[in-house]
Structures
1.
Amino acid sequence: MGSVGAAGAAFLLGNGYGSRALADQLTSTGTIADGFVVNGRHLSFGVDPQREMWVAGQLFNLNHYNAVPSGFKVSVEFGTDRSYGFRIPAELRELTTHVPVWNGVPTGPVKASLTDVLRANQFYVHAEIRNLRPGETYHYRFVYSAGKQTGYTPDATFTTAPDTSARQPFTFTAYGDQGITGAPGTGNTIDNAVSLQPESSSHVTDDYYDPTDPFSYNPASKTAPTDISPVAALVAQITKVRNPHNHTPTRFNLLAGDMCYANPSGDAVAIINPDGKGGSQPGDTNEPAPPANSGGWDDFDPYVWTSYLSQIEPSSANTPWMFATGNHDVELFHSDLDADAITVENYGSLGYGGHAKRLDLPKNGPSKCPSVYSFTYSDVGVISVDANDLSFEIQGNLDYSKGSQAAWVKKTLAAFRADKDIDFIVVFYHHCAFSTCESHSSDGGVRSTLAPLFAEYEVDLAIQGHNHLYERTNPISYHKAANSGTSSVQAVSKSAEDAAVVYPARDGTTYVVVGSGGRPRYDWSGSVESDRNFIAGVDNGKPGNGVDVGADAKKEVGPYVSQKDFTDHYESIDWSQARYRDYAFIALDVVPAHKGGTSSMTLRAINERGVEFDRVVFKRATKF
């Protein structure tokens, strides 16, 4: 047993395990047992956030990626202080991935030949802690042993959801489309990217991040952020968030799909190298290198997950991260593309099997939908929707639930709205129902399924990813016949002190796109992009940060809605209120009211430097 320490960091770097940042991070991970450490810790609520918490991590070997933990025992100690007092056994889950090398034959009678495989045996530790007390802070750590050696993770804490009667202020955060940072030296001067591999050839990189971008310029220090990646910066900013009323940290984070981009293609079909023989995805820079004269590894790198879980650990070790699935999260293998039976079995028919080994999501949704669930925290009901089941744009998993997800969402929304203890309903998912981004814009399948339900049950806020920018709509009146929407009110945010105020019971649902977690930034439909910091302009006589955005179907410009037949329906819209083309997340400050009062939920949009640039306050009268 011993700490990872400087010697361990030197070993990692000397053996090609990636960046200095990852090596430095592992030096503080804990102690070593038979070459193994537990890192990448991440929390998740159980079905009852007041009394259940999942704690998880990855079992990482410092000497060899695919080392099998023989005779390993893992447990979790927990309690209300650092003496812990309770210990429960942890489950060890093995995920086996054999990524084939493709010979360049995409279709037809000649089967793609298997030249070699990228072998990954990854191990994850999980423990569900039950019978906890509501509103209590607990300490925990993993204990793992092999033979006579025992290792420990550093002490960490989590806090259970309060009893609903407490009506205490709290904050939660959300964003999507995160990914991981690339290896240093891939096109910029960032040298602290948390990465195991040079994944830049897999489109998993920071080399699109332009430190000269004027919107990333820091006027106070007169410098550009060349010292930190946007992905790492946002994780750091989330750890700094505090509720303005009682100064408590964020209580959970919602990740609206596209987690780590181990599958960079995102087309929700069986994984194979799209560039063909000699293609560049992931390419010959990956370790281990593919065989000479091969087609390169197929378009999937399971080691990206190792980097990702390490990257989010500064937040996720102490704050539950609740995930929805996006198109890049479909990790699908087929035997007819030379994936072997064990890989096909591990990843499953939907491509979600890897998530089941790595992540813990509440299992109270429809049985066919592993990433669909709900939970309640104080007076907020939260629903995770799998938009892959609904998307007309990317149809690989379209209608896999055979309508069971939509029926479950309707039933859950009805129960939430009838619950006297729930004031606000928040739904998060990936593909956008309403957006003016030119890269994906709006998805007709997601809109036609969710928007009428949101209107019927007065959903307060819909959190969307997919488009790599920030956009907030006005509250929307949905028109079912045309599958379209119009603004019900102008929700103008002029400053933090003069924020927009929305009454969802009267005004309707607000949709926010926050796919601004770190991927390459997208552009807007149309020629106008608004200012980024509370500037209220005037467009066509209407005040607001946003604008009316016109469309021209003949020229194929402007906002559009993806159709089931793969065409795009262009639409001119009036509902885009606040738009920001940079890296950002949202913090939601909730203040539950007591009987007869008015509860509030304040959305603050915050960029990677911690600067707030948009604010809207949602208000609802209590039901009891």
Note: The chain is about 15% helix and 30% strand.
2.
Amino acid sequence: MEMIKNKKQPNYLLYAFLINLLAGIFAFSWTIIDQGGLFSLAGDFNVQQIPFAMYANDAIKSGNVIWDYSLDLGSNFIGGMAFYILGNPSFWVSLLFPSKYFMYIVGWLYVLKYAFAGMTSYAYMSRYVERKEYAVIASMLYAFSGFSAEALLFYHFHDVVLLFPLMMLTFDDLMTKDRRGPFIFATCINAVVNYFFIIGEIIFLAIYFFIRYMFPNVKQGFRRMRKAAWEGILGCGLGALLLVPAFIFTIQNPRVESDYTGSAAILYNADRYLYILKGVLFPGEVMSDQSCVIRNNFSTCNAYLPMVGLVLVIAFALYNKKHWLTKMLKICLIMALVPILNAAFSLFAGVYCRWYYMPILMMALASALVMDRWDSEQETLMSPTPIQKSIRKASIIYGLIAVGFVCFLLFAKWSDKTDRIIYRYDVFSVWTAVCLGGILLTYLIFCRMGKRRTIAACILIYTFCIGTTAGAILLYQIAHGEDARHIYDRLMTSEKIEYTTPEYRWTNRDNTETLTNGLPTEANFCSTVSGSIFRFYTSLGLSRDVKSPDAPDGLANLVSAAYTFETEERENEDAVQVVKGDYTTYYVYKDDNVPPIGFTYDTYMTETEFGETNMAYRTILMLKTLVIPDDQEAAVSQVLRHYNETTDGEATTAYLKEISGDHLKECSQDFHETTSSFGSTITAAKDTYAFYSIPDDSGWSATVNGEDTEIIDINGFMAVPISAGTNDIEFTYKVPGLNTGILCSAGCAFLTAVYLVIARKRKKKSAAAGKIAAAEP
């Protein structure tokens, strides 16, 4: 804002925004135009990012924000969507439009993200250079890095990339200018935008603080540490409204658990190191179809800077060996190469490299400082200048590494079973040319070129930014993408499917056709779902990671998935509905043998006994008999008899239809659900237990005929005791941690206000004391 108000200086902040905006338009507009105004990519973007944004748009506008039955088998809405989009500024912008227009606006939202990433990174880097145009050029390196290109598949990552420089900027202001307050709000917005990334950002900032502000002056560093810690805590506390319930929800997810033991904690295998090297040599690639080294990898392991690569970074390290930035770069390199240190940025939740955007900002800053120094040394008569010598050495070092990498992959035999680890020679050849060409151009511009060197550097880096990002988009679409018009047609056509029976789910699993339309299903593709769903699949001997496993026999019957829609008409079976679109026709079918959500049992068995059975039939066995915790046997045995295969019959595929049909005798009537509750009426012939295939989260409570009752966990689902006769059963859900988060946010808002008032008064008092001291003779 100070730069904008200063009319005497060129508005480089605006220049940074506009130049990155224009580059984004060039990189994205060709595909948006080609696909009739729509934008799509592939894989996760098409089946997660698009459906999630549309689903959350409708959910928020309809008030369906507590529990959602269409998120897998049912999940906490806040917990399920907090990681993906709930805190993202770009998502809140999309709420200005109806959900059905998201595919029309998402490409332009990407363009805006790149523009703002350029602007915020410029704001941070500009204070370190004298010639501000070099900070503008460096802002393109940051915004259009290989990390951003490779992470295009994950729409929500780019909000983190554009906001992180604000955290660095306000942190520096707090440390050097004692500017209180902005760091609180920068921390808050970064924490809210994604609770996963804020963990890595806090660790990175801690390293940054110790290297830059603590070690040079330890005594002063401790005073600064108190300020930083206090404002950081307030910032995170302001976002507790979202962070607390999201944290409580996420820790139930087994994906957050990971072991690092022995040599695996300190050393990767050889192909992983080659893969890390590829990430600084080659532009961002298609995660599921890489050109070389590792064919399929979703860790976002790329830190390529358009055209210049690491040439200017290495030159900076050679020229400024004791500079704090050189130390930061070295530590980041070590942490990238040591598994357990790399995993620290994700609280040891895997080998993700999704913190690379932070060292990329440091790399872009180093590049800006080299360009700035290079420009200032041009006024001397010395040729080559000291910085040019460093650039020349860096070009040779980086060039030899690149040539060695390429030659090794081309000519060295990898193993007895595999001659080469190049999977796509066409892409490998192009990226090799981009890598080596960028090194050569960088050397020629900064070491050999005469006039108009700055303009040449800007134009060529600009071209590389556009080309590498557009190339990544094209590769994603070619690799496994679907025409955007076909995706949009499926969205609009599936929207016409009628659904008026909430007691039944659907067997379909494609988020595009189900989640966007609020259809509850037996499974879906989402990483952040109720922890009870993971426990359910574990009990069956199956593993659930980012999406549900293939359905075992009997799953549809157990979870009441009676409906399905298909694109081909079945022979000898009438569809209950036919829906036609421009490219797609859906035929809807219903299995009348599937019981609704909520039915009773006559027998039981314990979890220990269940764990000793044949995994192939466990789902059918759960349908046959109530599987209870061992410590509940004393109570349940008073009502149900113990399951005996000889007298009660086998639980195998051959008897599935009979077992499923038996539950239609005592099952839910008048099933109803809201965003915070569900219930039904069950008329029982005797005292028994009513089973509901709804994940058993800690936020649920239940009543039967108005009386509070205990919920029994059934391998991740719920059951309640009911009596002979008519039973009105109601379940109510409260988001765990939501009230605590609200109170915490409110309390921190009050403390922040008090803190800022006190800081303002102290600043005025200090300024007044300074004036008095200056006026004294």
Note: The chain has a mean pLDDT of 92.
3.
Amino acid sequence: MRIKKNIATSEEGFLFNPGTGDSFSTNTIGNEILELLRNEKPLTVIIEVICSKYDVERDRFAKDLDDYLSLLKNYTILE
């Protein structure tokens, strides 16, 4: 799963899709997930990184990650 190459992101969590003209903002964790996706990290690594950095249960985060990725797909952020 990868972010489309034409998607612009900022360190502050701002995303811009030039294909649709849509812009979005995300929180710190969402931004970290985007960076891991941009670096082509597999979902297992993303789950490990976030769960080790934040006090979150693995099962809970895996569900939240799935929901977040669904949103990114719906907004055509992911390939």
Note: The longest helix spans residues 58-74.
